């Protein structure tokens, strides 16, 4: 079964804002060369989530995992993302489309951010 990971970020008017997310995509792709790893945005930037899911499904993906690259479970993750996912599931009933908690909810991510913050005092 072909699998895809879609890194889902908010988006911004400034194109430079996307640079860390593009690096995250590159790191993830390098670690998982057999998985389709893409980046999608909620607003202000392209591509959007429906476009990326359609692209991955057309490429043969039958399991799509959407990873909210947000620090917390705010309104976009709690309200907007579930609505988008429901629309996508209706549009692609043959595909398993799932999500996971926002990256900032993960203990290892929080530990890495804390280590970075602590490290700034030591430099």
Summarize the structure in words.
This protein has 123 residues and is α/β, with parallel strands linked by helices. It contains four helices and four strands. Strands 2-1-3-4 form a four-stranded parallel sheet, with helices on both faces. The mean pLDDT is 94.
SSE blueprint:
Layout lengths: L1 E8 L9 H13 L4 E6 L7 H10 L2 E8 L6 H17 L4 E4 L7 H15 L2
Parallel strand pairs: 1-2, 1-3, 3-4
Structural features:
123 residues; alpha/beta; four-stranded parallel β-sheet
The rounded distance between the terminal residues' Cα atoms is: 46 Å
What class would the helix/strand composition place it in?
alpha/beta
Output the radius of gyration.
15 Å
**Contiguous helical run count:** 4
The SSE string, one letter per element, is: EHEHEHEH
Report the average pLDDT across residues.
Answer: 94
Could you write a compact summary of the structure shown?
This protein has 123 residues and is of the alpha/beta class. The protein has four helices and four strands; from the N terminus they run βαβαβαβα.
């Amino acid at each position: 079964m072909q699998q895809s990971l879609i890194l889902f970020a908010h988006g911004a008017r400034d194109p430079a804002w996307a640079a860390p997310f593009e690096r995250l995509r590159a790191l993830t792709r390098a670690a998982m060369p057999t998985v389709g790893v893409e980046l999608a945005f909620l607003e202000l930037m392209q591509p959007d989530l429906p476009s990326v899911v359609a692209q991955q499904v057309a490429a043969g993906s039958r399991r799509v995992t959407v990873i909210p690259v947000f620090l917390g479970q705010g309104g976009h993750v709690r309200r907007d993302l579930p609505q988008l996912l429901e629309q996508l599931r209706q549009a692609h009933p043959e595909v398993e489309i799932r999500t996971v908690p926002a990256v900032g909810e993960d203990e290892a991510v929080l530990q890495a951010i804390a280590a970075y913050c602590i490290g700034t005092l030591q430099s």
